[in-house]
């Protein structure tokens, strides 16, 4: 049951981070889940485990990590689009 709750939390964090960034995460709901889980992992590596915790996910580091992940993904996708236009 813990894995299912963590997946739900990853989706919620991905959705909130997308709302904060004002951009859609590629992949829809599955993209939100993946971005939230990877962002939580990245945030815990960069910031540690602190702040409120729900379903084994520390909210603040997860949110910061997901926002960084979305920003990095957006930059890479924009660079790829510009490169394809030149060809």
Automatic annotation (TrEMBL):
Subcellular location: Cell membrane
Membrane topology qualifier: Multi-pass membrane protein
Keyword match Transmembrane: yes
Keywords tagged on the record: Cell membrane, Membrane, Transmembrane, Transmembrane helix
Gene Ontology cellular component terms for the protein in this record: plasma membrane
Keyword match Coiled coil: no
Segments crossing the lipid bilayer: 6-23, 30-51, 57-77
Protein family (similarity comment): Belongs to the UPF0410 family.
Name of the protein: GlsB/YeaQ/YmgE family stress response membrane protein
Organism of origin: Macrococcus carouselicus
């Amino acid at each position: 049951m813990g894995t299912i709750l963590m997946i739900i939390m990853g989706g919620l964090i991905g959705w909130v981070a997308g709302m904060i960034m004002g951009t859609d995460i590629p992949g829809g709901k599955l993209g939100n889940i993946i971005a939230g889980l990877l962002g939580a992992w990245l945030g815990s590596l960069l910031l540690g485990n602190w702040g409120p915790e729900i379903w084994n996910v520390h909210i603040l580091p997860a949110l910061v990590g997901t926002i960084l992940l979305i920003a990095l993904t957006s930059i890479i996708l924009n660079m790829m689009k510009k490169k394809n236009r030149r060809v």
